[in-house]
Design brief:
By secondary structure, the protein is an alpha/beta fold. The chain contains ten helices and twelve strands. It has helices spanning about 20-30, 45-50, 80-85, 105-115, 135-145, 160-170, 230-235, 245-250, 250-260, 265-275; strands at about 5-10, 35-40, 60-65, 75-80, 90-95, 100, 125-130, 150-155, 170-175, 190, 215-220, 240. Strand 7, helix 5 and strand 8 form a beta-alpha-beta unit. It is globular. The chain binds 2'-monophosphoadenosine-5'-diphosphate. 2'-monophosphoadenosine-5'-diphosphate (ATR) binds near residues 132, 133, 134, 135 and 195.
Length: about 280
């Protein structure tokens, strides 16, 4: 067991995760003695790994696909926002062995938009969201908290969008995936939370002809950084914010809790993670 505080990211697969680069950069930048590593953990190893990590000097961990939901059953204390989202991405291991679980994805989403589009006002109009997976859930919780008046949701599998509506109430309106382009006309904010446009995935094909140039548009896909969706929105005159910042900002609360320093997300941070 080492004496320096350790944290890491738990997932399967894990080699693609940018979190080790991000946290190692911050540790180095602030001169903090600490370590952050990628931890390949299968579903059946999850509980024993979580119980054992504190013995190895771990003070916390990030959690990524596919463990964000299942990790909740091993937590002793769960924040309200993680409960609402139904998933956790940030764990703190207490000295008495208890596990504290939080979800910072919604925080990361909001912080990224506020940084990338400083004039953006979530209350100024409806938000249109493509997709109804785990990321959409975290984003809806954050947007509702920020006072968005209406959330218009389109998902290929309509039932998943309807399930979000029943969880989050009348502020959510569901439209059919084949009519998704029609939700754009009124939207003040437009978000792609699907994997469409990601390297190796299918193209994003919904027409943006109805999109107002006043809308702020963001994508959670960050590989490539400028997705065809963001490029099309930019061509219409919209302010666009790429998805890398969401990943960087969601790491902030965990790093601060584990290592006692609130890290900055700036151009140097982006460059370090992209290098
Ligand atoms: P995450 O947790 O990152 O949101 P997810 O839960 O797997 O990941 O959700 C992926 C989202 O991308 C879903 O909204 C999914 O739509 P379905 O619910 O219909 O599966 C959407 N998605 C993935 N591939 C898609 C495609 N080819 N066309 C339209 N939507 C797609």
């Amino acid at each position: 067991m080492t004496n320096i505080p350790r944290a890491g990211v738990i997932g399967n697969p894990i080699s693609q995760s940018l979190s080790p680069k991000l946290h190692s950069y911050w540790l180095n930048r602030y001169g903090i003695k600490g370590e952050y590593t990628a931890l390949h953990v299968t579903e059946d190893q999850l509980e024993t790994t979580l119980r054992d990590l504190p013995n190895q000097g771990f003070i916390g961990a990030n959690v990524t696909i596919p463990h964000k939901v299942s990790v909740m059953q091993f937590a002793d204390k769960i924040t309200d926002r993680a409960t609402l989202i139904g998933a956790a991405n940030t764990l703190i291991f207490k000295e008495d062995g208890r596990i504290f679980a939080d979800n910072t994805d919604g925080y990361g989403f909001m912080a990224n938009l506020r940084q990338g589009a400083p004039d953006w006002d979530p209350k100024a109009g409806p938000t249109a969201i493509f997709g109804a997976g785990g990321a959409a859930r975290a984003i809806i919780v954050a947007l509702a908290d920020a006072g968005v008046p209406e959330i218009i949701l389109a998902n290929r599998t309509r039932a998943k969008a309807e399930a979000l509506r029943s969880d989050f109430g009348a502020r959510v309106r569901v439209v059919d995936w084949v009519q998704a382009d029609q939700m754009l006309g009124d939207a003040n904010t437009v978000i792609n939370t699907t994997s469409l446009g990601m390297v190796g995935a299918q193209d994003f094909k919904v027409s943006l002809d109805e999109l107002s140039p006043k809308a702020v548009v963001t994508d959670i896909v960050y590989n490539p950084l400028r997705t065809p969706f963001l490029i099309a929105a930019q061509e219409r005159g919209c302010t666009t914010v790429d998805g890398l910042g969401m990943l960087l900002h969601q790491g902030v609360p965990g790093f601060e809790r584990w290592f006692g320093q609130r890290p900055e997300v700036d151009d140097d941070t982006r460059a370090a993670v992209l290098s």
